Each structure stands twice: as C-alpha cells, then as structure tokens.
Amino acid sequence: MNPRVAVALVWGLLVTVALILIPPLLRDRLPDPMATHWGPGGADGSSPLTAALTAQVLVWVVPWLIALAMALRGRVLVRRLGRIYWCAAVAFWSVMALGMAGTMLLANLDVPDWTRAELPGSHVAALVLVAAAAGALAGFLGRGGPDQAPAAGEQPPSLRLRPGERTVWVSRIGNPWLVAVSVAGVATLSVVVVLGLVGAMPGAAAGTALPALAITLVVALATASLTARVSEDGLAIGFGPFGWPVRRIRLSQILSAYPEERFPSQVGGWGFRGMSGSATIMLRGGECLIIRYRSGGQLAISIDDAARGASLINALIAERVEQ
C-alpha cells in the first residue's frame, strides 16, 4: 500500500473514532436539541443531538472514503501535483471536520438551552486558517519526488519538413460538462438578480450577486473550451468560444514538446491547475500537449491530436536551429 494512503487510512480512522466517541462522553452537558447554525444574531438553527452528531461523522467519513478510493483505484498519486492536492485535501478536511465538531460542542457545552449557545466568528476564522495551514503542510510533506523526466537520449516526436514548406496545426477542445455546470451557476445567479429587481430580495444582496454573475460568466466562457494553434511564431492558446483571450508562447521559449496522457485526478481537477512553471490547462482527461520551456518549467494542455502538434513544434525548433 502506498505510504500516503496508509497514513491517510490510520489518520482517518482516528478522526472517525474521535467524532464518534467524544460527543457521547459530554452528552449530559449538552442541550437536546443542540445549536447547529449561527447567524449575525447568534444561534438560529438546531437539530436533535443524535442527528447533529451523525451529520458530523458523515461530513468527514464520506469525503475521506472517496479520497481513499481515488488513491487506491485511480491515478491521483501518479504525478507530483496530484499528490500535493490529495494530501492537502485530506489534511484540510480532517482538521475542518474535527474543528467544526469541536467548536459546535464547545458552543453548546453547559448551556441551558440551544438558543444560548454562542460561537464567535473569530473561532471560525481561526479554524479555517489552521485547516489551511495543515493542508499546506501535508501537501508539502506528501509531494514526493519530481515527475519522472524523459530518459536520457529519448527524442521527442518530430515531423520532416521539406525546404520552404510551411505547416500549421490547429486543434480545438471543449468540455460540455463544464459548460452545463457554468450555465447552471449563471442561471441561479440570474434568478437572484431578477428577484432583487422585482423587490423580492434586498437590493444589497442583488447588488452583490450582479458582479458575481459577470465573473461567473467570464470564467465559464474562458474555461469551457480552448483552441491551440502551432505555426512558425510558436504556440497560441485561445480561450473560450471566440478564441480570446490568447496566450502566446514564442518558439524561442520552447525547448521541446511531446504528447502524454494526464487526468484531472493527477493535477487536482479541471480548469487551470498548478502554478507558473508547472501549470496544466485541464478540460478533459487523456491526451495532452506538454511544452517544456528553455527556462526549465513546463505547461500541459489537454487537447486532441497532441502528438501531431508536438511533432510540428519540434520540427520548427529543429529547422530554426539549422538556420
């Protein structure tokens, strides 16, 4: 078993045991029902004690089991970025689950009635910061070694261009699921705005939703599809249905290119993943075009016919060197 999975399994069992065993020890000091939700004015929601404690356990156990299944049966731990995201997610959510359960118990402890339970906002903020720090530390410790580099002497794919021949490669890809999810989000925000305009929702809430609607729409259009074009000028990546905005990578910046299969579970999900020097534009799992920069970093783009695009890039680089 992968040591990361073993650690996550043991740690997850400890978290589960704590969530199950500690609340019953405090049962006599907790109100029933107990406060489970707080608003600006204090506690404004409650649940029976057993239901609240069961929900706390499920909130942790379900994501934990999904994470274990992904690691055992998927490709999530194959690449370094995937290991970072996976370890960080498990650590972050485990600390959040323990923290949410602990703060709720402390807020309800020894109060005569659930309406008297108090949960300061500073406690919630501190919990999020601690969980984020735990996630960052786990991601760093669990990152493992760098991804395996191509074997020494391995030649990337390359086309043979006739003297004077000019060739252009263009490929386009879209993800209908990302489009559907984005449209659903935009539709929901649109309803909120309409409700605000007709007076069914406070104007402040509608005013907040309007910029969120615009941002969601822009992000949805930019991340649901892309077009890649290789020519003598280098690689141009156009985002969205209109191919704009465009990111251009000059041929002089590229060391080599090659095709490789990568999947969302290996890079932390769909969309833009990673950071400068080790980024991935992931719209769907499978064939990707990998660009290695002369500066040492790389960029991965999920795109169809990646092998042909990589071959043309390498041929153009070789042609420039010969000149």
Description:
The strands form 3 sheets. Strands 7-10-11-9-8 form a 5-stranded mixed beta sheet. A 4-stranded antiparallel beta sheet has the order 3-4-5-6. A two-stranded antiparallel sheet has the order 1-2. It is built from 8 helices and 11 strands. The protein starts with a helix and ends with a helix. It has 323 residues and is α+β, with helices and mostly antiparallel strands.
Offer a few descriptive terms:
PH-domain like; membrane; 323 residues; elongated; 3 domains; DUF1648 domain-containing protein; 8 helices; transmembrane; 4-stranded antiparallel beta sheet; transmembrane helix
Total helical segments: 8
Protein structure class: alpha+beta
Gap between N and C termini = 52 Å
In the sheet with the most strands, the strands line up as 7-10-11-9-8
Strand content: 15-25%
- Stretches where pLDDT is under 50 for at least 5 consecutive residues are none
**What does the main sheet amount to?**
5 strands, mixed
Q: What Rg do the Cα atoms give? A: 25 Å
What pattern of helices and strands is seen along the backbone? Answer: HEEHHHEHHEEEEHEEEEH
Helix content: 40-55%
Mean pLDDT score: 84
* Structural domain tally: 3
Number of strands: 11
What is the overall shape? Answer: elongated
Structure at a glance:
This protein is of the alpha+beta class and 323 residues long.
Question: Can you lay out the helices and strands and say which pair or pack?
Answer:
Layout: H1 3-25, E1 34-39, E2 42-47, H2 49-73, H3 80-108, H4 121-141, E3 169-174, H5 176-197, H6 203-223, E4 225-231, E5 234-239, E6 246-250, E7 254-262, H7 264-267, E8 271-275, E9 278-282, E10 286-293, E11 298-302, H8 306-322
Parallel strand pairs: 9-11
Antiparallel strand pairs: 1-2, 3-4, 4-5, 5-6, 7-10, 8-9, 10-11
Helix pairs in contact: 1-2, 1-3, 2-3, 3-4, 5-6
